[in-house]
Design a protein that fits this description.
This protein is of the alpha/beta class. It has 10 helices and 11 strands. It has 2 domains: 85 residues, Leucine Dehydrogenase, chain A, domain 1 (Rossmann fold, 3-Layer(aba) Sandwich), CATH 3.40.50; 123 residues, Rossmann fold, CATH 3.40.50.720. Helix 2 crosses helix 10. It is globular and about 50 Å long. Bound molecules: NADP nicotinamide-adenine-dinucleotide phosphate.
């Protein structure tokens, strides 16, 4: 029978630990962590994500500041704002909420965030260190959350066949590298992969980060696999994942639900990175 990996419970435990660590940092070093979220435009989903981050910050004792900017801002001005935040000693972590308007290159903006304040772990130096197997200052939050979810099953990653569907910079690539670092045999699939099901069926650990509701279904899952569903798709007003939960559950040994799987872990890892940024600055 399938075991459901409860990301909400695990995330709560991690946030509790982070809150304790922050309490100690405040008491012993007099440092209060502060994050600045840069929000450009009025994308409704981004507004919700930012509100959730604000709530989580308040819960663990991180001060948060939302820098709201109009969608009409140009890249140069946005980069100047990021540079100002870099030099503000009271701000320990900066994150730019994606997506940015089409007129702005997200890569150019993210590259300007100081490596030491890069709580999303997307700066080229942090990503480069991950690629080289060195220790980045911060790991990308969703990818780190996925690794924690896998480890929570008690399964050893070493030697396992892992398949990651999706090659985004924020999820697919970093999680593949982190699985590789833990000695899994890793395959990355994408939109040009031929016979996706034949590849996913090999996976002891299957991560789906595509953005297409139910693209992974039971016939594509190996018996006894761990299935991590990153997808967040709105179907008839309901949040649903990239994995067809019902059919995949008949094959998998462990599976994450949507909602309540990867989503809460992403925020918990962001809180951890916020704490780490302030601790290093102290
Ligand atoms: P993304 O940048 O939207 O890219 C999607 C990836 O899926 C691409 O690599 C694409 O391939 C691949 N793909 C598209 N169609 C495919 C197909 N038919 N077969 C195989 N691969 C296919 O990805 P993302 O940013 O990782 O987001 C993916 C999903 O995760 C979205 O639903 C997003 O909302 C969700 N998400 C959730 C969290 C969370 O915290 N829960 C965090 C981040 C993202 P190509 O590269 O060839 O185009």
């Amino acid at each position: 029978m399938v075991n459901i990996i409860n990301g909400s419970v695990l995330a709560k435990k991690i946030r509790g630990q982070v809150a304790e660590d922050i309490g100690r940092l405040k008491k012993e070093r007099g440092v209060s962590p502060k994050l600045c979220v840069v929000l450009v435009g009025d994308d409704p989903a981004s507004q919700i994500y930012v509100r959730n981050k604000e709530k989580a910050c308040a819960e663990v004792g991180i001060e948060s500041e939302i820098c709201r900017l109009p969608a009409s801002i140009d890249e140069k001005n946005l980069i100047n704002i990021v540079k100002k935040l870099n030099s503000d000693a009271n701000i320990h972590g900066i994150l730019v909420q994606l997506p940015l308007p089409d007129t702005i290159s997200a890569i150019n903006v993210l590259n300007e965030i100081a490596e030491v304040k890069d709580v999303d772990g997307l700066h080229p130096i942090n990503m480069g260190k991950l690629l080289k197997g060195e220790s980045p200052l911060f790991l990308p939050c969703t990818a780190e959350g996925i690794i924690e979810l896998i480890l929570s099953t008690g399964t050893e990653i070493r030697g396992k066949e892992a398949v990651v569907v999706g090659r985004s910079n924020i999820v697919g690539k970093p999680v593949a590298l982190m699985l590789l670092q833990r000695h899994a045999t890793v395959t990355i699939c994408h939109s040009r992969t031929r016979d996706l099901g034949a590849v996913t069926k090999r996976a002891n650990i299957l991560v789906a980060s595509v953005g297409s509701a139910g693209i992974v279904h039971g016939e594509m899952v190996k018996d006894g696999a761990i299935v991590i569903d990153v997808g967040m798709n709105r179907v008839a007003g309901k949040l649903t994942g990239d994995v067809d939960f019902e059919s995949a559950s008949e094959k998998a040994a462990y599976i994450t639900p949507v909602p309540g799987g990867v989503g809460p872990m992403t925020i918990a890892m962001l809180m951890k990175n916020g704490y780490l940024a302030a601790k290093r600055a102290a």
